[in-house]
Amino acid sequence: MIFQETPLAGAYVIDIERLEDERGFFARTWCQREYTEHGLSPRLAQCSISFNKQKGTLRGMHYQLPPYAEAKVVRCTRGAIFDAIIDLRPESPTYKQHFGLTLTPESRTMLYVPEGFAHGLLTLEDNTEVLYLISEFYAPDYARGFRWNDPTFAIEWPAAVQVISERDAGYPDFVGL
Q1: Is cis: bond before 110, omega within 30 of 0?
Q2: What pLDDT digit, counting tens, does each position of 26-36 carry?
Q3: Active site residue: 62, 63, 98, 171, which one?
Q4: Which of 35, 112, 133, 157 has its CA 20 to 30 A from that of 104?
Q5: Cα–Cα distance between 101 and 124 in angstroms, integer?
Q6: pLDDT value, residue 176
Q7: Is residue 20 pLDDT above 90, yes or no?
Q8: Could you read off the pLDDT of 45-94 as tens digits, one per residue?
Q9: Domains, the chain, ranges and CATH?
Q10: Residue 21: half-sphere exposure toward Cβ, Cα within 13 Å
């Protein structure tokens, strides 16, 4: 795997390293040893998928509080997404900064989201599916979120939001942890 640190401390874009031959290619998408060598959480508690029927579906901005803070690896397996993360660690040099990129099945690129970050995504195509590798079990009492278009962060989403859950639409602006 090829790990490229984003402008946000501890967050990585991960690309596969293809071993190609006449059949096609083989590539590793997760390795406990390689994650540990890069200082990333190698814990894997659950894997989840989200299926999104309509282009313009927004999910986020979500995070979990300690002691259930979670790291995630996000990969788009069908369609396309704009994936956005925000560093919410007050001690971090990149506190309150955000980063976003487009993920597609064709690129096979993944985004590593460290503990202490908020995560959200916007689908760019109909019938989009996203795979999540998550380091911690879902703990609803520790789950939090804030408004996807909070001016504190000024994320430039690449398309209009067409579908959003009542919960996500009703989140307040970020006020700190």
Answers
A1: no
A2: 999 999 999 99
A3: 62
A4: 35
A5: 12
A6: 81
A7: yes
A8: 999 999 999 999 999 999 999 999 999 999 999 999 999 999 999 999 99
A9: 2-170 (2.60.120.10)
A10: 4
CA atoms within 13 A on the CB side of 169: 7
d(CA 123, CA 104): 10
- How far is residue 114's CA from residue 139's CA, in Å, rounded to a whole number? 17
Give me the amino acid identity at 74.
V
Tokens linked to 111: 């985004």
In sequence order, the 6+-apart residues with CB closer than 8 A to the CB of 9 are: 87, 92, 93, 94
62 is a catalytic site residue: yes
Residue 177 has pLDDT above 80, yes or no: no
Among the listed residues 38, 68, 95, 132, the single catalytic one is 132
Rounded to whole angstroms, the Cα distance separating 100 from 83 reads 5
Assess whether pLDDT exceeds 80 at residue 141. yes
Closest CA to 35 of 112, 110, 99: 112
Tokens of 160: 């209009």
